Amino acid sequence: LNLRNQYRVPLWMGESGENSNTWFYDCVQLLEDHNIGWCWWTHKKIATTTSPYSAPITGGYQQILDYWNGKAPRPSADFARSALLDEAEHLKLKYCEFRPDVLDALFRKDFGSVAKPYAGHSLPGLLPAAEYDMGRNGVGSLDADYQVTHGLGSESWNRGGEFRNDGVDIEKSRDAAGPKYSVGWIESGEWLQYSVQIAVSGTYRVEARVASESGGGQFSLALDGQQLTQPVRVPRTGGWYTWQTFEVGSVPLPAGEHVLKIDVQTGGFNLNGLQFVLESSSVRDWHGLERVDGGVWFGQNFPNPFNLSTEIPVLVNRQGDLHLDIFDSRGRLLRTLYKGKIQAGYHTFKWNARDQLGHPVPSGRYAYLLRYGGHRKAKWMLMVK
Most exposed residue of 22, 34, 116, 286, measured as fewest CB within 10 angstroms of its CB? Predict the structure, then answer.
């Protein structure tokens, strides 16, 4: 700083080291507080959490790395050339995974004080453990070891080395029935926070997807700073990747935007996610929702009667296969509004009073049929021009 002031030349930080998002944010704030320009190294790396983009590592390139590290036989020159060119091809942005949390730490001014959703989360539905809110340590999450300050050889801030660049320890879950990434190495006193959109007020059954070699871990839930549950004990599943779903309990949740928090009283378990299941007794004349089965509610279209377009509400408890079709009064199929997998949550499907070919339909009475999980339900609507 003295040299800059004495010789009237700018200072520039041209290359950064690898560290956590909290360290990134603190470093940028320090530089900007002293009017020092900066750039970050680099915008893209192979199999990384510390850059805005992560390029995949190809199988051929991994074989070359294994050879360089003495773990594999020497490949042929033709194989090596082909593998390197293939890896170069996969450096293109279209093959890369975007790391929004890294950019958030570098450029959002209130990263140090305000949490921001990592992803949109709607309840009922699945809340993946690794998709907690963004923000510095103590804002979107709290982890005991969240940055490296002791030089080379220090333990990584994210001991799993996957998905995100915070202190939270994330790894691939190896769970065929759950999210791809799980939170592990959980310690007492840590917590995770999630911004959620609750579709309808009611009582929700909460199920946790956990793995624990010996059991004994404990956590509780809070909503908007108010405790929802007492600490619940995590069962012994027999291994760190032996996943099991257990019921946390039933909790009342109000509709709207809220902040859900997982507080860890005792560590010693891995967490893959929480499933929030709306109990059937909770739905009370909300958009005319009617239970089809335990997994889905089906509502009356609105407006009804309608002119140019109308919307059909559906509330889904769990991911499943859903079909929604429009028929005329003679039972002829006019339009398929949806066919395929649907995520849990509240959905609306818009019909613009046109058939499958885009032709407008005449005024009249039309049926819409929902099929889900082997169950079906039909309702009527009236289109008036």
Answer: 34
Q: Please provide residue 44's backbone torsions phi and psi, each rounded to the nearest 5 degrees.
A: -155, 135
Structural domains of the chain ordered from first start: 2-103 (no CATH), 114-281 (2.60.120.260), 283-383 (2.60.40.4070)
- In this predicted model, what pLDDT tens digit does every residue of 126-185 receive, in sequence order? 999 999 999 999 999 999 999 998 766 667 899 999 999 999 999 999 999 999 999 999
Is the CA virtual torsion 196, 200, 205, 207 positive or negative?
negative
Provide the 8-state DSSP code for 133.
P
Query: Which of 284, 298, 286, 281 has the alpha carbon at shortest distance from 372?
Result: 298
As to burial, measured by CB atoms within 10 angstroms (0-12 exposed, 13-18 middle, 19+ buried), residue 226 is exposed
Closest C-alpha among 179, 63, 66, 174 to residue 130: 179
Closest CA to 184 of 195, 193, 192: 192
